[in-house]
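Lab manual, section 2.4: Encoding a predicted structure.

Procedure: take the sequence of the chain (97 residues), apply the prediction step described in section 2.3, and record the output as structure tokens. A sample record is shown.
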Amino acid sequence: MLNILIFLALAKGVQLGNNRGIYPRFGEHVSMMSGSKVLGNCCVGDHVIFAANSYIIDQDIPPYSIVFGSGRNTVIQHISSDKFNELTRSVFDESDK
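Recorded output:
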């Protein structure tokens, strides 16, 4: 069963799935751009952005990160809380609602 908390923003073509029956776990304020994929035994921290077409399987992602690429070319870049807020303001801003 998928364990997804609040504020998970998914774009078109995003895939979430299991690997050998184990599903990923997500923190809060996670944003997944078009074509990104998270499969298997992954623990995704709070405040994470997956770039378009990024892909991870059975890999943990620390809080306040941006994920680019896939496989051996995966890049996990730490970002500050200010930078995260700047990049995701339109996705998670509740004042517009």
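Check your result against the sample. The mean pLDDT is 86.
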